[in-house]
């Protein structure tokens, strides 16, 4: 009987632990050849130690004899001083590393050493509960659920209005990884609200200069403030909202568009759909029935008319003049500048 092997590893995020001392673990969803799926937790030093031993086992593929023969992916050594930014940067590095591992030739990707590292350990099935910390509380943002949410995949968790959840990871596509008592899974950010108030300080201000993105899937607007776009269109993102519905600009038109259908125009990042395993955008807050907030005032949202007005004002100020349709010196957006450079 053929021994099972790892066929896919997906990085879900990271989590803070306090026992036996403060450290971080990365959450990895491991898919096996027998179609089994298991969530495991590994520290970065653990992963790097495994990486070094794998190189020792396969010196030719590690490039130790001749660099041109290297097929095993590289992995930076752990830093002595860790930071929030380094952990975020590491997520992309680890995700690419894990994907490269399982795509290696079978004598490496299916070797015993690799399989043993990704096997479930007892501590993976019974991770330390947040309330068992001995050196202090785990610092995770607590949010309240504003409406009942029914899960549609095994990667999500069902929640009821009034439940309190702790946020492990806020994904840009609007699906957040949460924990509620003993349950963990993905939840649309639109079903959650902060306890302190409606003003979410983490949400960035609009950037009317715009960032160039390309649509990787067509979307037809369902609400008045959304925008319909075809596959492969280049747009400017002017406001990255935490609910995953970004405001984009296409010439003089603006509208909300699902961020999971966008990717950087320079091709340096993957689609925002890669994490989590959501195949559809999160619902808009306006479409959630019977949503009840504990706050008297909701967070003010800009209208599309305000976005368009502010965009025109920004471009005018940047050009130090009012734009003239017949003038070649009027201020241009990044999208216009990119088109001019490609001519």
TrEMBL record:
Annotated GO biological process: respiratory burst; superoxide anion generation
Record's subcellular location: Cytoplasm
The keyword Transport belongs to this UniProt entry's keyword annotation: no
Domain SH3 residues, every copy: 138-197, 208-267
PX domain location: 4-125
Ranges for region Disordered: 262-343
Gene Ontology, cellular component aspect: cytoplasm; NADPH oxidase complex
Biased composition (Polar residues): 266-277, 328-343
Residue stretches in coiled coil: none
Gene3D superfamilies linked to this entry: Phox-like domain, SH3 Domains
Keywords assigned by UniProt, alphabetized: Cytoplasm, Phosphoprotein, Repeat, SH3 domain
Keyword hit for Cytoplasm: yes
Residue ranges with Basic and acidic residues bias: 302-327
Biased composition (Basic residues): 282-301
GO molecular function, one term: phosphatidylinositol binding
Major site of localization recorded for this protein: cytoplasm
Source species, domain of life: Eukaryota
Pfam assignment, any one: SH3_2
Entry-linked PANTHER family: NEUTROPHIL CYTOSOL FACTOR 1-RELATED (PTHR15706:SF6), SH3 MULTIPLE DOMAIN (PTHR15706)
Name of this protein: Neutrophil cytosolic factor 1
Lineage, top ranks: Eukaryota, Metazoa, Chordata, Craniata, Vertebrata
Protein encoded by which gene: NCF1
